Amino acid sequence: MKEESVILFDGVCNLCNNAVDFVIRRDRKGVFRYGALQSEAAIKLLAQHPLPANLDSIVLIQDQRIFIRSGAAIRIARHLGSGWPLLTVFLLVPAPVRDAVYDWIARNRYRWFGRKDSCRLPTLEEQALFL
Questions:
Q1: Is 98:68 a contact under the CB 8 Å cutoff?
Q2: Tens digits of per-residue pLDDT, 17-38?
Q3: Helix (H, G, I), strand (E, B) or coil at 111
Q4: Are the C-beta atoms of residues 61 and 5 closer than 8 Å to each other?
């Protein structure tokens, strides 16, 4: 499996699913592939990389490197159209500060945005983009 640019996300989180939809619409070059963290394919892929236990954050696997939390989100924005690459300026902010904001949103995501009973299923048009 080619894994240069894979986004792994919480498949039952409404915020995460909406973020994936957002990225799919703006990824005009087809840079990314997607998978729910809960999927068998993602679990196998993650087993190949050293990561924190109980990971429930967005994960970007790009060119054999792993990025999580705010680092992943900012690096994903780098590849989107319009002005989204401008968000890379936030890489200048120390990761502990960025991740504190990210973690606050992540802790509240189910309460604010809700959750699904099961993981997101790609549409027929999206199937080739998912692991």
A1: no
A2: 999 999 999 998 889 999 998 8
A3: helix
A4: yes
In whole angstroms, give the CA distance from residue 76 to residue 59: 10
Q: Return the bridge partners of 66, or none.
A: 61
| pTM across the whole model | 0.89
Report the alpha-carbon distance of residue 121 to residue 127 in Å, rounded.
9
Q: Coil, strand, or helix at residue 51?
A: coil
What does the pLDDT average to over 30-52?
Answer: 87
Domain range annotation of the chain: 5-129
**Polymer length of the chain:** 131
The 10 Å CB-count burial string (b at 16+, else e) for 21-58 is eebbeebeeeebbbbbbebeebeebbeeeeeeeeeebb
Q: In what order do the strands lie in the sheet with 59-62?
A: 33-36, 5-9, 59-62, 65-68
Q: What's the rounded Cα separation, in Å, for the pair 9 and 102?
A: 14
